Please model this.
Amino acid sequence: MADNYDSENTNLVSSPSKKEKKKPDWSRFGLSQEQAKASETSLNTFSVDKNEALYQHTDGGKHNELFTEDLQLSHKPWWKANFFISEPILFGTWDGVFTSCLINLLGVIIFLRMGWIVGNTGIWLAILIILFSCGVVLIVSLSAIGVCERCNMDGGGVYFLISHVLGGRIGGSIGVIYCLSQAAGCSLSVMGFGESILGLLGSSNAWIARGIATAVVLLLLGINVAGVKWVIRLQLVLLMVLFFSVMDFLVGSFVHTDPENGVLGYLAVNLNNNSYPDFVEGESFFTIMGLFFSTVTGILSGINMSGDLHDPFNNIPTGTLSALGVSTFLYVSMATVLGATCTRFSLQNNYMIAEKVTSSLFLPFFFPYINRPDNYI
Model:
């Protein structure tokens, strides 16, 4: 019995060695023993490197990321690499924020009413109105920038600011009112554009103006549906027209005079006569300030671009404050030029006096009309 027990234990101990896999005969495949060892070594090295790479894409080896091998083959996430989803087009400080703010700040008021404002308030009060209005919107801009810097602002624009400051419920109600006000402002702008074109055509048919306004609304809708990149392209074109219009105005004030329309050129007598206020009947400092203040209300248009910016944290402050500084300089320059070159009577009675100052009649006459609807693109 003892002999049988020893033989069984011997069989149990020796059984694992019997179950070991036999080494393959590499000579049957035309490989030598050295080549077989080299191939096994390379395979083991590759498996170790691959496991280390996979381990780097896991949470400490606890959780294996889905599509980890796809991440090794491409720098794009798997959902973009597999389904070919296009990346959004983002803009920077100057093409995204600065352009949007400047286009909205330099509105139709400075072309059609700046001379009338200077004719009533005089140069010094006009500059005071400009600085006061720009100071108010500067405070608003700094407040909005402060909220943007303290919150992770990706999109939403003005609604994002309102909802974070006042809460979701109040922000939602104010956001609806804000959208309705923008829609109403757009309708008024395109109707004004249609009536202006109707006056150029020399017609009195109101349906023509309504048809032009409807066509402009559809055009703006198509531009917005096409994508924000087309909006920016159109704004860049309008900004170029604006630049040439302002330059034509400033250069024309030195080289062009029109005594029949009250444009006498730079004279000391004009500065003396137009330095102090002379309000027409029914107007006052506050009514004229209310008229001009509507020009600077587009200061938050750059913040509305927050969802299409590379770095809203840096783009919004730089672009917004730069646009406000440039527009303030242009406001003061145009008020001073008109007061120094035109008579008081022409400033108070000719709304298109800025056109008479310029050396070319086309660009300053063209921009006030295209500026009305483009603010709502």
Q: What stands out?
A: The radius of gyration is 36 Å. DSSP finds 17 helices and no strands in the chain. The chain has two domains: 25-83, 94-169+221-374.
